[in-house]
Amino acid sequence: MSFVNYSSREINCKIVYYGPGLCGKTTNLQYIHKRMDPDSRGKMISLATETERTLFFDFLPLSMGEVRGFKTRFHLYTVPGQVFYDASRRLILRGVDGVVFCADSQLTRMDANMESLENLRINLREQGYDPERIPLVMQYNKRDVNGVASVSELHALLNYRNVPEFESSALTGTGVFETLKSIIKLVLIDLKKGGK
Amino acid sequence: MTPPKGHFILHEKEFEAFQAVLQKLLADSYAKVVFLIDKNGSMLSAAGATSDFDTTSLASLAAGNIAATGGLASLIGEKEFSILFHEGERDNMHISVIDNRLILVVIFDKRSSVGLVRLRVRRADEELSKILHAVDERKSGEEGGGVIEELTEADIETLFK
Q1: In what order do the strands lie in the sheet with B43-48?
Q2: Is pLDDT at B150 greater than 90 in this prediction?
Q3: Residue pairs between chains A and B whose CB atoms are closer than 8 Å
Q4: Does the model's pTM come out above 0.90?
Q5: Residues 35-54 of B with CB under 8 A from A
């Protein structure tokens, strides 16, 4: 649920990066953190295990400038991808305004992608959201490694709503900002509709 | 569960009312700083030595903390743990849930005590809940402002130029 503060003239929205373990959700945020102007982003927080696997969430606050005199702030979160952290994933989805589903393009990870996407739909429903309507963007990550599925295969398997989709390599940054820009647009358009 | 539809709108009047409660709580509890945040981790209002803290990170982590303890509570059949207290060597943190929607964070040192903070927070809780209900009543009337509804795709595009 977005938060509009007329006093400080701010719009705050929450975007969650979802996807299977090791698909590159944290890497997306790290790249955004690295490349954004330090004045436009806050500190990145990672609640991770000693082996740098996300334990609870990563958090990165962004200020994207003004629309109609309102500062827009986006809070980016990742969920822990590993299957057994489902309780934590559900908590992080609370109050979400838009979701980036980060898929791992490697052929060996197709089952994990499908399981994670199904898990997203279940958890969205549990939080009172309609998985058919929430602002959603698909990101097919790790396009730079060997043994990846084609975009058309990924599309057929995962893009059940025919939402915007992007090929990416979060490590090098390819597609990272395109994905972010797309979800921000969808969230703001949805915010406008939700206000009616 | 509260439905996720719509958005939470805070107007000047309620913002000032929140601010007044926080200022009073700050003074009465001898706290260093007090924050009011929503359950998603957005800062609504703050009072005290805010420049000494990374308020954005603090808001996000406090919300995560409340979410995690809420998850623990439901696992043992409790509705929620409405108060959390973290004791540090120098500073302490008292976190409480207001009206099941907002989170009030009080940071204090040895000039105060957990008993005093708890007492003052209880009073602030009632006042903050009243303001929240006033927000709800207004919401069912007019949504106010209309800025969000009037956003155009061209406006949104300007963010990326």
Answers
A1: B43-48, B33-38, B102-108, B92-98, B83-87
A2: no
A3: 135
A4: yes
A5: 38-42, 44, 54
Q: Let me know if residue B6 belongs to a domain.
A: no
Residues belonging to chain A: 196
**ipTM of this complex prediction, to 2 decimal places:** 0.85
- The answer as to whether B4 is a domain residue is no
Write down the pLDDT at residue A7: 86
Nearest C-alpha in B relative to A74: B42
Which domains occur in chain A, in start order? 3-194 (3.40.50.300)
Q: Per-residue pLDDT for B5 more than 70?
A: no
Contact A3 B16 (CB under 8 A): no
The Cα A152–Cα A86 span in angstroms is 29
**Cβ of B65 under 8 Å from any chain A Cβ?**
no
Could you tell me the CATH number of the domain that includes residue B144?
A: 3.30.450.30
Q: How many domains does the structure of chain B reveal?
A: 1
Q: Which residues on chain A are in Cβ contact (under 8 Å) with B159?
A: 64-65, 67, 72, 184
Give pLDDT tens digits for A42-57: 999 999 998 889 999 9
* Per-residue b or e along A36-46, where b marks 16 or more CB atoms closer than 10 Å to that residue's CB: beeeebbebbb
Q: How far apart are CA A133 and CA A96, in angstroms?
A: 13
Place of tokens 């569960």: B1
Inter-chain CB proximity A91 and B145 less than 8 Å: no
- pLDDT value, residue B139: 65
**Residue-number span of the structural domain to which B111 is assigned:** 12-158
Q: CA-CA distance, B36 to B43, in Å (whole number)? A: 6
- Highest mean pLDDT, choosing among A76-80, A81-85, B81-85, B154-158: A76-80
Query: Would B5 be classed as within a structural domain?
Result: no
Residue B1 counted as domain residue: no
Q: Is the separation of the CB atoms in B89 and B76 below 8 Å?
A: no
